[in-house]
């Protein structure tokens, strides 16, 4: 079965290489997600064909918004970029055609009209990304969870809508998976931010274990630093377990939206193996078997 799975993944990736070079708005979205959100790219490949175009557009928007913070030198420039996307969302729902490939792809009938994508989830992602433009650490783990809910969970709600799934149990699972995703994204970014003398980990957890920003900036491997990482990672694990507690109540077709748990589980496993040393080189290596793991999880129809 593994051999067939690898072949299937290779065929799908090959087809996407062709699609991505088309020069169209859809090709732009696919290429952007493949280059900047490879795990999200793999997840989207495993969605039903009727959902893929919309999901690639949604993930492309998420990438565009996530890049604003690191691509501008002044906060005002970031605010202008966010206002552009806020206006673009308004135009999409007003029937206009925004002048950007991602907005153009989102404005197509199959996206907004066919799937009836909820506008407030899109605006909530934009608003939360804007609020996060300030280079400040999260005051508490709860603040980090709120950010994750408003960004990653909102994205999952929209992807569920592309699958025509709208029920409280699926949304509940999506909420917890999104929070886990946001927390793990924060952890994965620690080495990068530390190299830029920035620390965004929750202040309350850092204070609890007596760690300072300087501890992370100098890549300390002391126990108190590992304890901070353990506590934050444990909360991500708790959210994944909560999401799985609804498994029997979640519609089967919703499982495809939750394949990102493959990557989240993989990272947490590597982090435990590294004894919660967030700076361990193994955490920076790309998992070449990830496409296979995604396919196997999809084949098992679980999350």
From TrEMBL:
One Pfam family of this chain: SQS_PSY
Localisation per UniProt entry: Mitochondrion inner membrane
Record-level GO cellular component terms: mitochondrial inner membrane
Main location: mitochondrion
UniProt keyword list: Membrane, Mitochondrion, Mitochondrion inner membrane, Transit peptide
GO annotation (BP), single: mitochondrial respiratory chain complex I assembly
Gene3D superfamilies registered for this protein in UniProt: Farnesyl Diphosphate Synthase
PANTHER family found in the cross-reference section: NADH DEHYDROGENASE (UBIQUINONE) COMPLEX I, ASSEMBLY FACTOR 6, PTHR21181
Function: Involved in the assembly of mitochondrial NADH:ubiquinone oxidoreductase complex (complex I) at early stages. May play a role in the biogenesis of complex I subunit MT-ND1.
Protein family membership: Belongs to the NDUFAF6 family.
Name used for this protein in its record: NADH dehydrogenase (ubiquinone) complex I, assembly factor 6
Annotated source species: Pelobates cultripes (Western spadefoot toad)
């Amino acid at each position: 079965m593994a051999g067939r799975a690898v072949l299937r993944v290779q065929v799908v990736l090959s087809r996407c290489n062709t699609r991505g070079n088309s020069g169209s708005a859809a090709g732009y979205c696919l290429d952007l997600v493949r280059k900047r959100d490879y795990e999200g790219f793999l997840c989207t490949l495993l969605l039903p064909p009727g959902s893929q175009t919309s999901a690639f557009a949604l993930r492309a928007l998420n990438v565009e918004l996530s890049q604003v913070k690191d691509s501008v030198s002044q906060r005002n420039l970031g605010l202008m970029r966010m206002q552009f996307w806020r206006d673009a969302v308004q135009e999409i729902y007003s029937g206009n055609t925004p002048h950007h490939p991602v907005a153009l792809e989102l404005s197509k009938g199959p996206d907004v009209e066919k799937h009836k994508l909820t506008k407030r989830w899109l605006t909530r992602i934009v608003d939360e990304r804007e609020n996060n433009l300030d280079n400040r650490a999260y005051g508490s783990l709860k603040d980090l969870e709120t950010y994750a809910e408003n960004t990653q969970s909102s994205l999952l709600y929209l992807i569920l809508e592309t699958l025509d799934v709208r029920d409280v149990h699926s949304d509940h699972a999506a909420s917890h998976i999104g929070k886990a995703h946001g927390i793990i994204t924060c952890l994965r970014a620690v080495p990068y931010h530390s190299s830029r003398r920035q620390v965004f980990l929750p202040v309350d957890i850092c204070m609890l274990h007596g760690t300072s920003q300087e501890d992370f900036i100098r890549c300390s491997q002391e126990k108190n630093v590992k304890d901070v990482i353990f506590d934050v990672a444990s909360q991500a694990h708790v959210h994944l377990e909560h999401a799985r507690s609804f498994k029997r109540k979640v519609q089967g077709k919703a499982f495809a939206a939750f394949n990102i748990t493959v990557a989240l589980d993989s990272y947490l496993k590597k982090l435990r193996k590294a004894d919660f040393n967030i700076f361990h080189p193994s955490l920076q290596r790309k998992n070449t078997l990830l496409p296979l793991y995604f396919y196997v999880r999809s084949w098992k129809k679980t999350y």
